[in-house]
Amino acid sequence: MFSLRMATKPAATTSRLLSAMSLSARFKSTAASQGLKDRLRELIPQKRAEFKEVKEKYGKESLGEVTVDMALGGMRGIKGLVWDTSLLDANEGIRFRGYTIPELREKLPTVTPGGEPTPEALFWLLVTGELPTAEQVKSVSQELAARASVPQFVNDIIDSCPSTLHPMSQLALAVNALQHDSNFAKAYHEGISKNDYWDPVYEDTMDLLAKLPLIAARIYRNVFKDGKLPAIDNSADYSQNFATLLGFGENTKFVELLRLYLVIHSDHEGGNVSAHTTHLVGSALSDPYHSFAAGLNGLAGPLHGLANQEVLNWILSMTKELGTTTPTEEQIREYCDSTLKSGRVIPGYGHAVLRKTDPRYMAQREFALKHLPEDPLFKTVSNLYKIVPEILSKQGKIKNPWPNVDAHSGVLLRHYGLVEQNYYTVLFGVSRAFGVLGQLIWDRVLCLPIERPKSLTTESIKKMFENKSKL
Ligand code: CMX
Q: Which domains does the chain have, with CATH numbers?
């Protein structure tokens, strides 16, 4: 593939080739000290062979039919892309490389005994398919801490944003600006071989994951606090550092919550808007920064990640309107009815794939039952869980009346003092990076092609079937 491309690109000089080779060699030499990258490199030949075998053996098999309803209805249920890091079952919920959330909470190494797993541990699992040891997790934590620095011009961009610019817009802006230092963009420009794309994508991924807490916390501090950021601790884990940057590092329960939060929001197979967008944009060989920034813009939609902000806005509007922090079941019912009558959705409920209560909701509920059972807002969230599914089901059109991940997250954050709900989707975004970038590495390992599904016009669909219906 590489030689073909070089043959058709006479402008590629020997010096560019040499420079590409030395870049690749640089990545290989740094790999010696990087446990995760070493393991990934070992796995690649076997996984490429498996992928090739599946293509050769089953390439002509059908994955199911596509109906006109599916094309008109947001492509629901169409099996049209590969996503190896996680798989969503409508009833069981998400499995990360085969493990459910309860299994992850039991099997992944933790920082505190009996505590929550860390996003670093999950990332190792997502990238390798293997449960890491505590030592391997520590090596990822240290590597991310060592890479955590942000160019001054990116800080300046964030600092120049008006505080009225939504934190998600600021986050996407900063991620796009970090693209300035993309290893992949540079390596591509210098003519790296397709077989080696994964290597600078891995480097960009690690850099981006490392920098996200710094830019996310800078946004938080600028918009809601005094704009000053503390230094990070190279010996601390990712969530401890992120919590410290946000100003909550001394609250051990908040740090535990953040660990859980960053794990459960990371990945939800490939079809959701943020995951699919990152994957789609990455398929054009846009680097991880451009790809993930695009995904963040999708996450900022109120039907997707922004729903966590909307849930709290909605609950707080309800308690304000009713003049009580503990509304009765009857009052909640009436408020739900008025929301639906006004043509709005009840945020935090429903899902395009799930048909049961989201296990990510349950994990957060368990955390709340353990740590904040008496919180009045948690009691309201619990009452909503009792009431809303029945109300939504009665409408007769919703396919899943049960709560999703966003129905619960805000109340937990608020309990520990993170009360600025416009910021909540940024936390979702930092977490989502672990999932979508983990898969993006595999997209390049497997040399997945540029995405290009077929679209139709309404007219062409009509024409396709009108003669058939006359028969
Ligand atoms: N409140 C009121 N009506 C709802 C509803 C809700 N929470 N969820 C779905 N419906 C309605 C839909 O709007 C749709 O109505 P129309 O036929 O009039 O258009 C009907 O029920 C059928 O929808 P569906 O097939 O069950 O759901 P979709 O797959 O189309 O949409 C989702 C899924 C999540 C967008 C939708 O349930 C929703 O809008 N929920 C509220 C927003 C939310 O919580 N989003 C977060 C999802 C998780 C995440 O990505 O973070």
A: 307-419 (1.10.230.10)
